[in-house]
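Supplementary material to the annual report.
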Amino acid sequence: MSSGVVVTPGNVSVYHGGNLKVIDRRMRVAEVVLRCAICVLGVLAAVLVGIDKQDKVIFSIDKKAKFTDMKALVFLVIANAIAASYSFIQGLRCTVSMLRGSLLFNKTLAWAIFSCDQIMAYVMLAAVAAAAQSSVFGEFGQSELQWMKICNMYEKFCTQVGEGIASSLVVSLIMVTISGMSAFNLFRLYGSNKGKNSGR
Amino acid sequence: MSSGVVVTPGNVSVYHGGNLKVIDRRMRVAEVVLRCAICVLGVLAAVLVGIDKQDKVIFSIDKKAKFTDMKALVFLVIANAIAASYSFIQGLRCTVSMLRGSLLFNKTLAWAIFSCDQIMAYVMLAAVAAAAQSSVFGEFGQSELQWMKICNMYEKFCTQVGEGIASSLVVSLIMVTISGMSAFNLFRLYGSNKGKNSGR
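Predicted assembly:
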């Protein structure tokens, strides 16, 4: 019995195997840290882009650049806000289950967490890609289409958007890592009859 | 012994459990079909966008729209070509192992397939998001930044790019499904000592 599984009411199982227990505890701690990081960086990115604006007087005309001028930046702010809120809730769940010292082996819950993590990772990555594409147009323009660059006029605005996108990129990479961890937590339940039964 | 695992030389294991065998065979068939679909749709998307161009005479000036005018479309063509080639190779591997009637339980190979599938899914999704963002600018323009829309001039060009992006979107959704399947194939090896040992 090197890795026995005790099934308790409410579909909660606790590993008693030495190695697996240590690995699981480390993974749980890593998950809490990563979800907290998403929370902080997601809020930072949303604030950096969301409050970003710059006024400029060009030929006596007052012009203003703000993040709502590009729909991709609005999408980025919303995606970061959702990712931060979602990670806050998931971080709380992880902390509570870690403090209780239990490992959830409920397949339905594992499927729900896996699905949400996957969706969040793909949404964040799509938001970063779209915002990065918009920023490339802003930074370099597209001379073939007569789309002029704007970052030579709104330097401070573009720098702050760049910082927001960099922060969002880190959020999406962490989200990708977490979605891999939740895939591990879900699919290892299908590894043997033990796992299968513990989920029922 | 409802799902015994026989370990054969070369880290190849064969399930003899009734249900698991049927599920595994169905998953293998589904994987081959999905990888073939990526192959066909990826080539279709790359060709649709890659050969797309349109000439237009505007105020006696001959103007030409081609996919290289937008870097995001070049990225989309390359991503589709890589996805199609990769899926062709993986489809061949799946077909061969299906014909041999064996299920690979080599952890190193499972990790390699999982990693490549994940990278392909994220790259395809990023490519589609960036291309879609560029197309939105082309279709609607961005009046706040004086970026005028171009699709009223190059209708045929834009329609064909749209078809290419739609095809790429399907490719990326299939790639997401396949990356889920390869996560299942990998992480179930960690479900019990059986799975662990069979991979060593």
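Residues 107-140 of chain B form the longest helix (34 residues).
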